[in-house]
Specification:
The complex is a heterodimer of chains A (252) and B (320).
Chain A lengths: L1 H13 L2 H27 L10 H5 L3 H22 L1 H8 L4 H34 L13 H26 L2 H20 L3 H8 L3 H6 L13 H25 L3
Helix pairs in contact in A: 1-6, 2-4, 2-6, 4-6, 4-7, 4-8, 6-7, 7-8, 7-11, 8-9
Chain B lengths: L19 E10 L2 E11 L4 E5 L6 H8 L7 E6 L10 H4 E4 L11 H11 L4 H10 L15 H13 L5 E5 L7 H16 L3 E6 L2 H7 L2 E6 L2 E7 H8 L2 E7 L2 H7 L6 E5 L2 E5 L3 H10 L4 E8 L2 H9 L12
Parallel strand pairs in B: 3-7, 3-8, 5-6, 6-7
Antiparallel strand pairs in B: 1-2, 1-4, 8-9, 10-12, 10-13, 11-12
Classes of the chains: A mainly alpha (252), B alpha/beta (320).
Family (chain B): Belongs to the ABC transporter superfamily.
Keywords (chain B): ATP-binding, Nucleotide-binding, Transport
Pfam families (chain B): ABC_tran
Chain lengths: 252, 320
């Protein structure tokens, strides 16, 4: 039953141009930004090469690509509400919840399939540029592979976050605002607090927590890679749960 | 236009369980009842029209039947159980709720394919139904380029995709040209003749008079009539004769009887309750000169408006 719904959701995903455009934008942002930022760092080499993080430079585009992926996640759901297609979908799957799970699985797999090559490509593009000043790092160095693939994991998580917010709020403008609020505004609000408090709060906010998995080393300003990603998954899971509750209980 | 292809994969005649049963169905938004204690049954084998002015609660009732909305009280069952409890819902009931409910960037083919996949229906059936509704040439074009008529055809394809025993269509004739309307009418009759339960809404009495054998009429969410179309028309439409004469007052005084009603306007008389033959005889006996004597059938639309007038939510005159 649910496998059928995943297939159907996959068909829906691949049959609208906006999916390809959004994901292509995400790939271009990740790879192009790696090339640009690496070039910039090569022309202005760091004072202390030992403290230079070549992986972070190559993954800088992930923070931009998350916008494209997150907004696509929102649109996948709110588009159905805006057109009324949701009623046809629910007529076909009256138990409703398989629709949300099917969409999450299909979108998660598609995002992963695009994001993994993108971050790996960005890493190698970045290192090939940094090599000129011997600032590059090997993929096999401790923590590097995890950080690079973590960038893809984070993008999948942001996509599902957008999907959950879309299903919860059923409205494109509201869900996109909520997504940006969670990913960007919360840090700004935390930044206004006294430094001693904001440093402790900040690392538990969705974006800093989720991005911890993309850092090779972590310091007192960030959680450990998997602890941070776990906190991020908790946010996504809670919102998906709320979305499921609303889908199940409310009229469509 | 549409090449000959099977719309349905003929099933046996419907049994008594193949019907829509609505019992005491009520839906309130805030304190306001959109659907108010509706009880009716839609049986297989005939086209049942669901008639009412815009805003009467037809679409809400259909969404309640399909489990898209939860009822405040009462029940609605499709083929013996609430729609949400069916394990193969697309084979039990197919619905067209909004013709434009398609992603504008998605093609008709992929729209139907995704729906088919949720029910394990194969690609051949998708092609078959696309041919049957006459959309073969445009099936790969994005739906935003569809006219309303093409969207209605796609909506009908959506409803028939699972070869369902019960078909629920909300205003399927909207936006169709004459040929399209004829096609839908014939299609509905054919589906009913195969023993399916066919429930079709419209706000136009004249459309339903030609399409449906039975009528469920509602206004302001309440049931007004649940009857055969012929009976409904006979009861609602009264025959009126138009008479012009040199002596309207004298003739009016002679036209009496239990159900006779005479109205005078611009020197002509409108007479209800007497045939033109009877009026002619009365006038001849009194030696009154008639200039004109003609039967006027009250239009179905007028009769429908009369019946639902009290039940119309928003009338053109403003607040009631």
């Amino acid at each position: 039953m649910s496998v059928r719904v995943v297939r159907a959701e996959f068909t829906k995903l691949r049959s609208v141009p906006s999916t390809a455009w959004s994901l292509a934008t995400a790939v271009v942002l990740v790879v192009a930004f790696a090339a640009m930022y690496s070039t910039l760092r090569v022309t202005r080499p760091p004072a202390d090469p030992a403290a230079f993080d070549a992986t972070a430079v190559a993954l800088a585009g992930v923070s931009l690509a998350q916008i494209a992926v997150g907004v696509l996640g929102v649109l996948l759901v709110t588009g159905e509400y805006a057109t009324g297609l949701i009623r046809t979908s629910v007529t076909a799957v009256p138990t409703r919840l398989p629709l949300l799970w099917g969409k999450s699985v299909a979108f998660g797999l598609v995002t992963a399939a695009v994001a993994v090559p993108a971050v790996v490509g960005a890493f190698f593009v970045g290192q090939s540029v940094l090599r000129r000043e011997h600032l590059d790092v090997a993929f096999g160095a401790p923590g590097v592979a995890r950080a690079v693939l973590g960038g893809a994991l984070y993008l999948v998580g942001v996509g599902l976050l957008g999907l959950a917010l879309g299903a919860l709020l059923r409205n494109t403008a509201g869900a996109v605002s909520a997504l940006f609020g969670m990913l960007f505004a919360l840090q700004m609000v935390a930044g206004m607090l006294p430094e001693s408090i904001s440093d402790d709060i900040n690392k538990y906010l969705p974006a800093p927590a989720g991005l911890a998995v993309t850092y090779v080393d972590h310091d007192r300003y960030s959680l450990g890679p998997w602890a941070g990603f776990g906190v991020f998954c908790l946010y996504v899971g809670v919102l998906l749960g709320l979305a499921a509750w609303r889908l199940r209980r409310r009229d469509v | 236009m549409p090449p000959p292809a099977p719309l349905t994969r003929g099933r046996g005649p419907g049994t008594v369980e193949h019907m829509i049963q609505v019992r005491g169905l009520t839906k309130r938004y805030g304190g306001k009842a959109a659907v108010d204690d509706l009880t009716f049954t839609v049986r297989p084998g005939v086209v049942t029209g669901f008639l009412g002015p815009n805003g009467a609660g037809k679409s809400t009732t259909m969404r309640l039947i399909l489990g898209l909305e939860g009822a405040t009280s009462g029940t609605a069952t499709v083929n013996g159980r609430p729609y949400r409890e069916h394990t193969a819902p697309l084979r039990e009931a197919g619905a067209l709720l909004e013709a434009r409910a398609v992603h504008p960037g998605r093609s008709a083919f992929h729209h139907l394919l995704a729906l088919a996949q949720t029910a394990g229906i194969g690609t051949e059936r998708v092609h078959e139904i696309i041919d049957a509704v006459g959309l073969r040439d445009v099936a790969r074009k994005p739906a935003k380029r569809f006219s309303l008529g093409m969207s209605q055809r796609l909506g009908i394809a959506t409803a028939l995709l699972g070869d369902p025993r019960t078909i629920i269509l909300d205003e399927p004739l909207n936006g169709l040209d004459t040929e399209g309307i004829r096609w839908v009418r014939q299609l509905l009759r054919d589906l009913a003749a195969e023993g399916r339960t066919v429930f079709v809404s419209s706000h136009l009495m004249s459309e339903m008079a030609l399409t449906a054998e039975r009528l469920v009429v509602i206004g302001r969410g309440k049931l007004i009539a649940d009857t055969g179309t012929a009976e409904f028309i006979a009861r609602a439409a009264r025959n009126v004769a138009r008479v012009r004469t040199s002596e309207p007052e004298r003739l009016a005084a002679l036209l009496t009887g239990p159900d006779v009603e005479v109205q005078s306007n611009d020197g002509a008389l409108s007479v209800a309750g007497l045939t033109t033959d009877q009026i002619g005889v009365i006038a001849a006996r009194a030696q009154i000169t008639l200039w004109e004597l003609a039967a006027e059938r009250a239009s179905l639309e007028d009769a429908f408006m009369d019946l639902t007038r009290d039940a119309v939510e928003y009338s053109a005159g403003g607040a009631r």
